[in-house]
């Protein structure tokens, strides 16, 4: 599955909105990271990741988001995730519950787990 993004800038309020559509996974994360870095370089006070049409996220996608969150925080700005579907929200809940704990042997094991959780919440 591919990932499409659309960027909307509200200069007046210093907000950049990045709408994601599709899957944020190992294949799409590098391109998304490049696009997101360009948006962050704009120096807006808030960057919003609109996940209304995001169907899947893997550990590679999460790494890009967490890296961007650290980067925006260091610059005195904010990164937010909005409109998360229940199965995407579940992934964020899992990671919040285990913030500093490595419980998976490798990325593939983590991706398999996240995939199974997302399928379970979607009812697949």
Fold blueprint:
Blueprint: E1 3-10, E2 15-24, H1 29-41, E3 46-57, H2 59-74, E4 78-82, H3 86-97, H4 107-122
Parallel strand pairs: 2-3, 3-4
Antiparallel strand pairs: 1-2
Helix pairs in contact: 1-2, 3-4
* Overall number of strands: 4
> What is the CATH architecture annotation?
2-Layer Sandwich
Topology order in helix (H) and strand (E) letters: EEHEHEHH
Could you estimate the helical fraction of the residues in percent? 40-55%
Mean pLDDT: 87
Can you list the strand order of the major beta sheet?
1-2-3-4
CATH domain class name: Alpha Beta
Q: Which segments are poorly predicted (pLDDT under 50) over 5 or more consecutive residues?
A: none
Strand content: 25-35%
CATH-defined topology: Transcription Regulator spoIIAA
Query: Structural class from helices and strands?
Result: alpha/beta
Number of domains: 1
- N-to-C terminal Cα separation, in Å? 17 Å
Name the CATH superfamily classification: STAS domain
Give a short account of the largest sheet: 4 strands, mixed
Number of H/I helices = 4
Rg, Cα atoms, Å: 14 Å
Quick structural overview:
This protein is α/β, with parallel strands linked by helices and 124 residues long. It has a single domain (3-122), classed as 2-Layer Sandwich (Transcription Regulator spoIIAA), CATH 3.30.750.24.
Description of the molecule:
This protein is α/β, with parallel strands linked by helices. The chain is built from four helices and four strands, in the order ββαβαβαα.
Key terms:
124 residues, alpha/beta, Transcription Regulator spoIIAA, four-stranded mixed sheet, 4 strands
């Amino acid at each position: 599955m591919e990932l499409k993004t659309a960027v909307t800038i509200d200069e007046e309020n210093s907000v950049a909105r990045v709408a994601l559509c599709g899957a944020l996974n190992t294949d799409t994360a590098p391109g998304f990271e490049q696009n997101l870095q360009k948006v962050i370089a704009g120096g807006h006070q808030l960057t919003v990741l609109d996940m209304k049409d995001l169907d899947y996220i893997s550990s590679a996608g999460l790494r890009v988001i967490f890296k961007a969150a650290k980067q925006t925080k260091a610059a005195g700005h904010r990164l937010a995730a909005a409109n998360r579907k229940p199965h995407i929200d579940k992934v964020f809940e899992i990671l919040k519950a285990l913030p500093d704990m490595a419980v998976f042997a490798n990325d593939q094991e983590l991706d398999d787990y996240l995939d199974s959780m997302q399928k379970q919440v979607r009812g697949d």
